[in-house]
Amino acid sequence: MNSTLSMTELEDRVQRIFLRAGMNAMQAGPLARVISAGERDGCKSHGIYRIEGVLRTLKAGKVSGTAKPFAEGADNGAIVRVNAGGGFSNAAFELGLPVLADRARDLGLAAMVVNDCAHFAALWPEVEAVTAHGLAAMVMCPSYATVAPAGGTKPLLGTNPFAFGWPRQGQQPYVFDFATSVAARGEIELHRRAGKSLPEGWAIDADGQPTTDPEAALGGAMLPFGGHKGSAIGTMIELLAGVMIGDLTSPEVLDFLGTTTLAPFHGELVIALSPERFAAGRRGDPFARAELLFEAIQGQGARLPSQRRFAARARSQAEGVDLTQAELAQLDRFLALGLDAIA
Amino acid sequence: MNSTLSMTELEDRVQRIFLRAGMNAMQAGPLARVISAGERDGCKSHGIYRIEGVLRTLKAGKVSGTAKPFAEGADNGAIVRVNAGGGFSNAAFELGLPVLADRARDLGLAAMVVNDCAHFAALWPEVEAVTAHGLAAMVMCPSYATVAPAGGTKPLLGTNPFAFGWPRQGQQPYVFDFATSVAARGEIELHRRAGKSLPEGWAIDADGQPTTDPEAALGGAMLPFGGHKGSAIGTMIELLAGVMIGDLTSPEVLDFLGTTTLAPFHGELVIALSPERFAAGRRGDPFARAELLFEAIQGQGARLPSQRRFAARARSQAEGVDLTQAELAQLDRFLALGLDAIA
């Protein structure tokens, strides 16, 4: 039998788990919010499932649970710089966001760099936090070397997510957030556990040959989405959100961690743009014009991205979040044992 | 028998064609340079082949050949705004570029908006012009509604090119530039002329059903690359480089022109980022670190984008550009007849 928790109850429970594991409130709060948001939106892969990975990374000493993020270079033009101090990205993002929003409104566009952070979350919570300020957002970060560049044979690029958001008045924003690999690594793992073959085009084996065997794929490399085009975007993300911001690229992250079972440690790039500033002096309200585009997309039966997630959110907000007894027992165990819950 | 022209001879000949057709020097010069650069790089689809389309658009009155681009909003934070005055984008881009470069170096990143322009060129010449200033660049623009959004049935998005560049010391930059449709419209046209079937996944017919018949595809819609992911990027480009900058979206362009045989009229967005500013205070030289990434890509047998183009450029610069007698005769005809060469 399932139990239903309100969002407040869920956030509180997750936060207590992180505090019990020795994290400070500055880290635990934002982490609890982003994990609860995943669960709320029906993204099980970014919900409470992630708690174990957070604790594992903490126990392995590959992230600081007591870090205090800090701003760097107070007046740095259109660049807002936040250092996570070796902690998770989430607290650093929350610290920098108001400054980013001010700067983007002031200059028309601005970028936030988060350095020295562990990063395990989806990018859509950050995209939505920027759109809530009436700004458009592009967000990207590397991960660890698990994807072969198009035409290549070995893992080099990360699954490097790319996310974008556009604010909409009186409703949820237009948001997409996807891996630049064909599939997420977790999907290959799920196929392996279920004993199922992979679709063609997802992966290559250790010899660089196409494979549909999940085991061979995990020992080989994933492929970028859209062939050489997706590969190029994945490379752009390594350059902009790794090299350019002076933080680790996906191969460097894998070297640093030595495994893909811990949260990757790197940086993140958030670009915020002000439609009001960009459209000033031109005909038409950009927000009203965007609605015409969305109507035309939906009018021909195509879907806007994130709609399933927003529907799940509406349900969760009305009815609470459903957890199974096994999930609740796991939360209780984490709360009772702290880091000792991790083998 | 072919003839070989130096780049100077080719540029001069193309420029004289545009002057003869009634364009001013401010429009004709940049157009001649970008078309000659296409020919030089072996991109026949963006070389002298484009002259006819330029003249056709001019004759149809859908672009001004005597426009003078002008800067707008002199001090506008990180936004550099150039109005093409109804002329081609190229002159406007050249006008705004030095300001964009200064602003990006000063603030860390900056955006150039080109408004009210006809646009027919590849984006890589602009990307390379930005990287020549030691800056990274993202460039995007809409085109006309010929691509169905993923899950849709009708043309709505454009082939919306997305391009990126990263400067490299002592060698050609890292550059990609691709349509966010699976294929360019011209490729479908080439299949039609050759009586060949299209590969699967390129297009749908007027009823929204998958088709490999080029005729049915031209009457239906092209598909975005990479399924819903490419569709999302194409939509982002409509929003940022159409709606946000107060210029036409792809469906609006098609309404305005009533045809896809003229150069589309819309705007363009160029974002320039300073790796030096972004990396300041962090470990490692971003340009040296990028080379490690490029070596790792090439070291496993994968190619960097644009390498074929750069090889053709090296040949053209050493040996000149080869044109067939038919191509030369066509240039002579344009020069003799001006706009009367267009039916």
Automatic annotation (TrEMBL), chains A, B:
Which InterPro entries would you find in this protein's record? Mal/L-sulf/L-lact_DH-like_ah, Mal/L-sulf/L-lact_DH-like_NADP, Mal/L-sulfo/L-lacto_DH-like_sf, Malate/L-lactate_DH-like
Q: Which domain of life is it from?
A: Bacteria
SUPFAM superfamilies assigned to the protein according to its UniProt record, in alphabetical order:
L-sulfolactate dehydrogenase-like
Residues annotated as coiled-coil are none
Asked if the record carries the keyword Oxidoreductase, the reply is: yes
Key word Oxidoreductase present in the record? yes
Q: Where is the signal peptide?
A: none
What Gene3D superfamilies does the annotation carry? 1.10.1530.10, Hypothetical oxidoreductase yiak, domain 2
Write out the entry's keywords from A to Z.
Oxidoreductase
Q: Which family does it belong to?
A: Belongs to the LDH2/MDH2 oxidoreductase family.
Protein name per the record = Ldh family oxidoreductase
